[in-house]
Amino acid sequence: MRIGIGIVVAALCAAVGCGGESEPGRPQQTTRVSEPEVGTRQIGILAPAEAADTAFTYDTAAAPPGAELELEVVEADGMTTVRLSTELLQPNRGYAVHAHTEPCGRNGADAGPHFQHEVDPAATPDRPSVDPAYANPRNEIWLDLTTDGQGNGSAETTVPFVFDDRVPSSIVLHEQPTTATEHGRAGSAGARLACFTAPFR
User: What is the pLDDT of residues 182-197, one digit of tens each?
Assistant: First the structure.
């Protein structure tokens, strides 16, 4: 009987493995370990530019004081997912939203140009990138959203990169409902209505 049990156990070990080193020529099982997630979550409440700390409105009709912006950023496995949720913006309208290089200030221009993973070498401080090879939703962070009847909305994007020593410093809400993509206007979306200084890492 013991011999029979021993044969059965040996057969099971050969089929599923019973620990120890694998047999020569037999591949070892490996487990893929994902990169750890890096994430941030920031909330800002819009206030008039002269009274704001981190969340500024430059147009109190289109981006009312008291409106809430929540930004979540998650980096994992070579990609970055950015989610924006809003409450109490102007109802039933679209906003083109982008990540920018600088913190917000009392003037909308203080946020600088769009953050680009690969920076357009032809762009200058006076002439931001409008080349669709660089100004596009895979190289920049675009979060175009449309609000509901209460002014609430959300948008999400995933881009094929993570941040190194360069990270965006803010998000800007623009007056146009969507972002232009044609050559010579790519990335443009009109006046800056509001800005939220929100560290992405």
Answer: 999 999 999 999 999 9
- pLDDT confidence band for 126 (50 / 70 / 90): confident
Contact 95, 155 (CB under 8 A): no
Task: Identify residue 10 by its one-letter amino acid code.
Answer: A
pTM passes above 0.90: no
2: enclosing H helix or E strand: helix 2-16
- Give DSSP secondary structure letters for 3-35: HHHHHHHHHHHHHH--SSSPPTTPPPP--PPPP
CA-CA-CA-CA dihedral for 6, 10, 13, 19, to nearest 10 = 80
Strands (E), 77-129: 79-87, 94-100
User: How far apart are alpha carbons 70 and 62 in whole angstroms?
Assistant: 18
| Superfamily for the 38-197 domain | Superoxide dismutase, copper/zinc binding domain (2.60.40.200)
Largest separation between any pair of C-alpha atoms in the chain = 89
